[in-house]
Amino acid sequence: MKNILLLILICCLSLSNRAQEQMNLSSRISGKAIKLPGFATSPYFEEQVISFIHTPGIKVHINAPAETKFKKDKPTKLVLYALPNGNSTDWTIGKMPAEGDDWHYHIQHIGAQTRYIRASDPECNFITVYLEADTKSWGSWRKAEPTRDQKIKETVEYILSLFSKYNPHIELNSHSGGGNFIFGFMDAVSEIPDYVKRISFIDSNYNWDNERYGDKLQKWLEASSDNRLFVACYDDANALLDGKPFVSKTGGTWHRTYLMQRYLKKKMKRLSWNKTENDSIIYFTADNRRIQFYSRKNPEQKIYHTILVERNGYIQSVFSGTKYEGMGYQFMGRKVYDMYRQDSGSW
């Protein structure tokens, strides 16, 4: 009898040890460094990067966390940032100042803002995907062929497929003429897919049309409380360039943002809208701030177009409506990401 009990005890200990070994192995696997296939290690912050041309003339540059920071058990945010007209990917990433720099290097700093976001939110694999049209204008690129909007959709889905193992979703983001990329995507689909979880227009919704896009945007917002919208603009109709107006009263983002917000407020009647207004801003939010419209007043008649990005605008467009919104930074406040700027170089 004692021998039988001893045998049972030995078996139990053996099974317990095996279970512990499996747990340790699982822990090592989930915590191990993830080397993304085909990616190179950047000299800046050990980020994983890759560049390629997809479809006719779309330059794609993907910036992912370092191997040691990329975790398989975390959700993966793929933020597709469509570049503004006339800007290169290098300019958009930004860098530390150096003698002889083109001024474009210092007006967006999406690279540094990406790193700030990663440092602030450790709960996801945060990836910025830079999308540059070979024409340096998404408007002219889309007009070149009637199938270009479908090519935009194919590009988005291809990028999503690259990270299929890592629980990915898409967030569409843009500045200036980059908004045309988002509208091209919306034109290519009958309804906005559920893999899109956020849409952000940073002074980039020039192409908004109630009849063309209103119903799709409304249905997408109503489909899930996880779907978020962020829109920022300034009163460009009141801005002066060389002492003269350069945007018509209805041609800029100030008017388009008004139309967007008014449309959604009228159609989404169940939502309670909050309005904050002072001498500087008009701020509409709805549904626990998952829908936001920020409009900067402009009695001084300045041009705030790129400042909306530079002053923590990319950070705000990603964090709006989340627990990280406003933590350690202020939208349109002082820049908080200078320590994350990379040295002079090209990636």
TrEMBL record:
<protein>
    <recommendedName>
        <fullName>Alpha/beta hydrolase</fullName>
    </recommendedName>
</protein>
<feature type="signal peptide">
    <location>
        <begin position="1"/>
        <end position="19"/>
    </location>
</feature>
<keyword id="KW-0732">Signal</keyword>
